[in-house]
## 1
Amino acid sequence: MRRALLVLLTVLLPSFAITPVAHAGPSAAPAVTAVPANAGRGWPVSGARGVLDLAARGYVEEEYLLSGQADTFEQVGLWTEDGRWATRVATTGNPYTTRMVVVRPRDAARFTGTVVVEWLNVSFGVDIPVDFSQSYEHFVREGHVYVGVTTQKAGADKLKSLDPARYAAVNLSGDALSYDVFSQAAQAVRANPQLLGGRTPSVVLATGHSQSALRLTTFANAVQPVRRTYDGFLIHGRAALAAPIGDGVVGALSAKIRADLGVPVFVLQAETDVIASASVRQNTAQVRTWEVAGTAHADQYGLNLYNAANARDRSINDGAPTTCDKPVNSMTFRYAENAAFRHLDRWARGGAAPPTAAPIAMLLNLIILRDGDQNALGGVRLPDLDVPVAAYSPNNTGGNVPGACLLLGTTTPLPPDRIRQLYPDHATYVAKFTAAADRALRAGYLLQPDRDEAVARAQAAPVP
């Protein structure tokens, strides 16, 4: 709850500019060791086994230990809102062992050359692959490789408690190691073809959500300029603040992405996130921001996968599903995230920048403006919002996991009379929905496979 309130309520403070200073180059390459499939309980914690049928999609899931010596960093001078931050190496030679979950095409010939590396989220004390849960269908359709990295101490400690036999060697002494550990994960992906079915990558993209997005903001501004390990970043669900660079220190309270980074950054925000991030909105030559109207920080689509993994792993609440007072937000955020990954991949390869999008409409950056059905105005518009059958809210209440429902949003069906007013017959609903889907497709906010899936849902829906 404390973390959730910090994200939503932090007061943002301005600051002043300084010049970055140089420091040591990349750490020594880490060692990679395969985890036997039958080790311990026989599956990766927070992995896909029993949750997704990867084999039917032509994919395999493998797990590896990543071991090496990591540097820690410390802040130099005042960290400013423009993100041009100075750091230096604080300590070196810190031993660590963590794990990576690799999801790759069974047939290496399908691999596109793109690897997406996720900084697994530990806001609830266990690794949660948020961006994989939203965009796994896109990764599989494209032929990308996905790598989920246990980057923080809370995730590592939970692995050892849930499956001590499988993860006996895992050890992260503190979150100060996280930045170099995440950097070394990219080094490992580039240097170990066995991770990718014998292939080597063309593009390695970093992604992370919520708390991980705050840490990726710090990584992009302070570590990427000197480590240069990633070709692009998708920062999903951030607030204006950034994470601290070391243990026991406070991060910058207001942080844009530095303009001189040299690689593209896509900032992807749900409606829940915009009040906490409106002061650092950016659209520049190398930073693109989309705010997706009607969506929540986390939603029912992702929650379905998490609940299934949690029932298997019993990692939170003894495996019980997360519940809230009201139905959880079911807007199709995943469509926008899939499109964002497509754009970022092309952008990182030297292609065109993604299309811009209007921000969600707000009053004084504090109040979201809404239509008569209580749906947000402005922002990236997906067909499920432009042709609504419900009101989609960014927050929820109550629930059996403290703090979770605050971020899960709500879905409130529109009254039957309103539905019939909007759509006097089914053909009208399908025609309006199809037109909205085609607008989003032309704008670049929706990919063709997702457009087709959305229209098929509308055709099958009992509306009115």
## 2
Amino acid sequence: MWAQPPAAGVPSATSLKSSDVRDHYARFARWLSEQTGNSMERKRAEADLIFRRVGITFAVYGDDAGTERLIPFDVIPRIIPQAEWAMLERGLKQRVRALNMFLTDIYHEQRIVAAGIIPPEQVFMNAQYRPEMQGVDVPSNIYSHIAGIDVVRAGAGEYYVLEDNLRVPSGVSYMLENRKMMMRLFPDLFSRHRVAPVAHYPDVLLENLRTVSPRGIDDPTVVLLTPGMYNSAYFEHAFLAQQMGIELVEGRDLFVDGEYLYMRTTRGPQRVDVIYRRIDDDFLDPLVFRTDSQLGVPGLLNVYRAGNVTLANAIGTGVADDKSVYPFVPDMIRFYLQEEPVINNVPTWQCRKPAELSHVLANLKDLVVKEVHGAGGYGMLIGPAATKAEIEDFRAKVLAHPAGYIAQPTLSLSACPTYVESGIAPRHIDLRPFVLSGRDIQIVPGGLTRVALREGSLVVNSSQGGGTKDTWVLEG
């Protein structure tokens, strides 16, 4: 965004020339140069205090420092010009459309496997593939109703998809709360910039969920199913349920009678038509998946198979966001849509292939290596930042189970000016827009920008010390 941070007014790590500011940041840069370091620090402290009061925290399992943490919020927004966003929106819609077609295909005709485009073992031996879903029809053939697609900007400014999150993607509450915070702290900025709104996301999400209710239901009952208050994303579950005006329920609040699902209420049982579920597949129905699960609803899969309830996202969706399937998404776009991808993948080596494994092992110090089932920034090696001992330890892990890893080059990720202890300095960022699939595919302009707060770090995950920013898409 900025090659270097601004020096005027606010203390900074380096100096800024006007040529370092991209055109769509110019107005914001002028405003920022008028601010003092003390005023910005006060605003940052105010944001932290408000977030703590509201309870915007996330749980860190096994963390000796405590179970709840505040995700650091940066007071400098990430700004995206309209033309850039239009390209991103087009590419994200294309990708999610192809991913939903892939899921429909593998649970029905399996044409892409028969065509030899994806090896059968990549699908049917995948831990996220659910044979129980084979032949099950879902409303409108939509499996991923809510997708969080992680994108990065690198090199000469080109965008790449880093990861597809199609199971229970989180983070949208931070997108909404970050915007509310910026409008509270800096209302004058929004009179200077035409920033596309995001506050209507809960309304769009609810309408999206209502459009995929079982056939014949005119006024569907929608609920949000949470694992409970000890889940790391519980704040988001409660927040979204409240914003949509729907019931937040746990498994014990629901029961199956015949081929229908009901919610216990003070007025007696009420039929449930759509579940926005924030529980992993394994815990949804103890009669089918994990028998020790106390989080799900016994018999839920029977209701689902009968077409009497919609699950968003569908059971078995995870096979499409597994990192071992990620390299094939551009081929999915070509196969199902007869189009070239608008947004490319990051170049990826699959360690299950002997030739690509040899390349990865010979270049570990220069690559990012990831577990195919890993998440949250765990189970990965960032070669340039790793010690020799860490590299050798990871080499042994890859050799022991090559199919469990992929590798990618260390991209020169774009950086955004970020307010840190030393003032304003560049920090690496990514972006997670949220793509909603229902009667139409819709994207609220923007998304969750995550920032690696440690100098030089490429890991943006909150569990690994990352923070978040408000994301502005300019209108005109």
## 3
Amino acid sequence: MKAARRVVTLPPVLRGPDALRFAADVRERGADLLEVRTDLHPEGTVDARALAAILELLVSERGTPLPPAWVAAARWVDRDVVHAGDLAAPSGKLLASHHAERALSTEEALRLWDVALPDGAQVKHVEPLGPVSRERVAVLLETQARLRERLGEGRVTVLTLGDVALPVRAVLARQNVLDYVALGGDWKAAPGQRLLADAAREARAPSPRHAGRLGIFGTSIAHSRSPRIHPQPFDRIDLPEDAPIEAVVDALLPHYRGFAITSPFKLRLARHTGASLDAINTLVRRGDHWESFNTDTEGARAVIERLGARDLFVLGDGGASAALRTVAAEQGLTPRFLRRAAISDPLRGTGIWTWPDRITPPDALRFEGARVAVIAYGAPARRIATDIRQRGGTPVLLGAAWFIAQARKQRALWETST
């Protein structure tokens, strides 16, 4: 089956020329369709014909009726089978949709589609994910398979919504016609959409040699470079800090062969998987269970060797600190691990900053000429480096060294997954 066509929704703040620039931008980044919804854009705020000249248009009726000019310009016309006055659309353009208010059984979902549809109509079925479990994912996949069997290949899209829905949507996308994705930034059209960049990268990649996907779990990880260097398909799974991560990884066991784990889930998943380690950063599928590892020790070793100091302080005491402890013990070092509440006097010498960018350091933190290694990379690393300078320190950017060292080991481990 062909890869799902990637749909990006026009944000409500974009009108006129800004909307045209957005359409051109997402086209260059790999989008196949631009969605314009009547609940987000009143008639007259966008030029549907001009947008359609840049990127094929999908127009969606949400409450307010679709303007005739939008329908004329569109490749697909989305009308809700429950709330639309009728399902009228020009021949070959109808996308009939249903948005369930709760999680459904497969039989309940199939009954909703006991409706007469015009020849060639597409079908979009949407449900909230609800509590995540292996059984719940199996139900959604069964609903998708049964709808495809009833309606035929190339007509069905099944979506799910929720704070932890992203990896489930990625699994469903492999048999969907449409994949609704987000460009990135602060706005998404629906909770659980994955990034356009990740979906486009997967579509360009050759068929994987191994069954199952890869992904990275964390909070605020849109900057992660893991998808750029690891085998595809690879998903950035950005979840809230209080997400039920344990239930999520268990539910995904049949569908993913491995995960990278970053802040804030390293400690929780170490406990959940019964690891002998305080923190983990890697999961590898072994038959019917996950095996956990901490390849951060490879990154910690690279950073400590680059710094070349025998006396170190470490800012933070989370998942990265566990790897630093292990390597320091191997090398006969005794770093000082400093939590935020324990910092009062200015720090000298050489240190390592392990706090994620989203964590605010204590006001009392000051340096007196200290060299401070930053193990983040990209924009977060630059922000941390600025903070270090403002507090009297000299940042040493070693995030790439840490990242590459641990990623090499991760990749070798994933190659052994079963």
## 4
Amino acid sequence: MAASVLPSAYQLSAASPDWLNKGDNAWQMISATLVGLQSVPGLVILYGSIVKKKWAVNSAFMALYAFSAVVICWVTWGYKMSFGEKLLPFWGKAGPALGQKFLIKQAALPASAHYYKNGTLETAMITPFYPMASMVWFQCVFAAIAVILLAGSLLGRMNIKAWMAFVPLWLTFSYTVGAFSLWGGGFLFHWGVMDYSGGYVIHLSSGVAGFTAAYWVGPRLMVDRERFPPNNVLMTLAGAGLLWMGWAGFNGGDPYTANIDSSMAVLNTNICAATSLLVWTWLDVIFFGKPSVIGAVQGMITGLVCITPGAGLVQGWAAIIMGVLSGSIPWFTMMVIHKKWTLLQKVDDTLGVVHTHAVAGYLGGILTGIFAEPELCSLFLAVTNSRGGVYGGSGGVQVLKQLAGGAFIIGWNIVATSIICVVIGRVIPLRMSDEQLMIGDDAVHGEEAYALWGDGEKYDGTKHGLYSDDTGHGGRQASGATQML
């Protein structure tokens, strides 16, 4: 290499300043990538395979579109609304986060940190030692997966154009409120409500918002509601596996540093998920006579969701208890209460997101208020002397705070999501036409997941690809690779 192209000492020091912790920055970028992989391809694969064959493309595309749209909205205005200067006690001021490449001066709290009367700091500032760009991207993938999880309630009938409008509106008027209130220095953070990694901000909000949106969009066709088999169970497991393994970044990255707390969070996450999956599976065996693969996936998800608000705040034994409850209570609400409660039957929540995310997320938040260990709480920079109910002192009050914090997230999402759906519905039909609902992907996208010759599928090569359907019978010449196959 020529000497003229070697980086100078100044350039090296500027790229790696003294304050930069390379280990923390590397872990944060890895965590963000893991969370991103949960959505793309994780949930893209899971959604595309767990639905009926005719909705595979549409379901996968809803996730793919949402991820892309959130990235642009997040860096343009969403990040600052969630982690910027305070506009209201529950909302930050909008603004761009483009070109944010230097040290984070205030990651979780703006200039509104609470002080005791004697001037000592009650709630410390969080100052990770890595570039702002790492934080912006890390929080971006969280925002994206929240919207994608919400989509699980709407699969198989929401107008794709309405969905394209819904994504930026819900991110702006719903997600950013929960994020700022609990993570960005808002009133719930200062009050001491614990949400380690998004049990409330992501799962409770997406579960409630998904159920609310499903009410406004309306149900699938009756033929789809009565029979909606997965088109590929093995691919569903592949998507679920990406979701599970990606949760190491989901929960392990939230201390904003590679420390003891992050290790505890990753271990507890896997303990709770495994316990929950086993409990759900055994309940299926006991009451239905056989284990369900889809049921096991649901149990895995409820365990991952339940541990999220307390992943780095509880001990391993508590994670097992949380797994037992997350594998049984959401199972009961889905398998028993849902079948007896008229409201739940009326609203067509396609993948039961209200059970797997809203119920499991709220349950996890409450259990965090019970089991949060004082020393781990101090590592998380919660309000001084925070502790779970089993540790005495002010622990009983913590449970009430968790209940109240969850109630705010539920109320806000019901109202905000309803307003968004009503507004969109006046411009774009929320639900597809009955003709589109009968046909599925081919009517909506002009594409199908499994375009098998002779199976009735049609693919318009003039619009979507290089070749026509009859490549071997007078169509355009296929490539050499295709001819070899």
